[in-house]
Each structure stands twice: as C-alpha cells, then as structure tokens.
Design goal:
10 helices, about 15% strand, 2 domains, alpha/beta
C-alpha cells in the first residue's frame, strides 16, 4: 500500500527562536513536512499562496499584518488550508476574532508538544480543538449574549435567519455532538454511521450555516441553543 502524502505545514511566528523551534520539533514527526516559515502576517499570506500547505500554525500578534488578518485571507483564498492558532494571548476579543476569521483550533503557548502535534493532525483530519480555557471563554460569551437578548413572547418561535437553510433531524444530532467536542469517529459511533458519512454531514452543515471552520460551527451550535 502506498503511504499517504505527508502533512504539509507552514509555521508563522515573528519570534525566530520560537518559529525555528516549532519547525524542528514538528519536522521530526512521522508524516509531517515543514514546507516553510514566515515571520509576519503578510509573509504568511504570500507563502501560503505559493506553498499551498495543509495546515498553518499561526501566531496572532505580528508586524505588518496580524495573525487574524492572515488567517482570514488564507482561509478565504484557500479553503482547504487549515489554521491552528498558537499564541500567548487569550484575550476574549482575539479569541473570537480568530475563530470568526476561520481558525480551526486555538492553543496557548503553554500547550505541550503532544497537544500541539495532536491538534495539527486533528485539524488536518477536519476536526477542531480549543484548549479548555479558551472553550470556557467561548461558552461564557454565548451565555452573556443570550442573557442580553430580549425575552421572546411565550408563543413566538425562534427567528430563523433567512440565509440559514434548515437542518435535517440527523444533521441537528450531528451538530449537537460536534458542539460537545466529539471527533468524527466518536460521532460516527454515537449515531451508527460510517466516519466518512459523518464527515460529509459536517461539510453539509457547515455549508448550510455558513461556517468556515469546524470550530466556528461548534460556536454557532452553542448560539443556536442560546
């Protein structure tokens, strides 16, 4: 059997020591090829377009263009490229801006090497990951937003976004499990479907809800329940 092609990785960080350290660490892992390193957001956008990496490990606070700007441009131009944010900053607005820009994962730089590696591979598989502290921020934000909304009339139904295509019962179930942080494999076991079928369901739900990443989709799921 022919071995699958290596996961092509681009490392983006304005601190050379961190950038090179990450590249050296990840390049030693089986099935991963570090195809480039960028020192700022503009360089990241240019290198992503030229190299077409599978995954970009992205810092946020950088010169010329921030990681949020770079993430938005890369995921817009190359939907197949996934972005893992790896930063020292956990400010609420940065978290939500990065997720809205299309980041598939958000890790802090105190993450272990194993966590970084597993997150890179998980995002490449089409999954998502938020560190526990970041996940709590996301949930807290939606709880706060839901409390600010005016209470609906007792008989009024939840307003439907005119751009939002209704989900089927099966899609609603898959979305609920996804929002709980389950992987495609775990969802497949829960709903008695093949893993590939679940992946197709997730893609269709993302399309219906206009989500650019699995993480954004999980966030939208929380918002739908609010």
């Amino acid at each position: 059997m022919t071995a699958p092609p290596p996961l092509r990785l681009l490392i983006v960080d304005d601190q050379p020591l961190i950038r090179r350290g990450l590249a050296m660490m990840l390049a030693t892992e089986a099935g991963i090829e570090v195809v480039g390193q960028a020192g700022d957001g503009v360089e990241a956008i240019e290198m992503a377009a030229a190299l077409q990496p599978d995954v970009v490990v992205m810092d946020l606070q950088m010169p010329r263009a921030s990681g949020v700007v770079a993430t938005r441009e890369i995921t817009r131009a190359q939907p197949g490229t996934k972005v893992v944010v790896l930063t020292t900053y956990d400010h609420d607005e940065l978290v939500f801006e990065a997720i809205s820009a299309g980041a598939g994962a958000y890790l802090l730089k105190d993450a272990t090497e194993a966590e970084v590696l597993e997150t890179v591979r998980a995002v490449h598989r089409g999954e998502s990951h938020l560190s526990p502290a970041i996940a709590r921020k996301v949930m807290d934000r939606f709880r706060a937003l839901s409390q600010q909304l005016p209470a609906p009339e007792a008989t009024a139904a939840r307003p439907v976004d005119p751009l939002e295509e209704p989900l089927t019962e099966k899609e609603e179930r898959v979305l609920e499990l996804l929002s709980q942080g389950l992987s495609n494999k775990q969802i497949a076991a829960a709903v008695f479907l093949a893993e590939g079928t679940v992946k197709n369901y997730v893609s269709r739900i993302m399309e219906k809800l206009h989500a650019r990443s699995r993480t954004e989709l999980a966030v939208r799921a929380v918002g739908r329940r609010a």
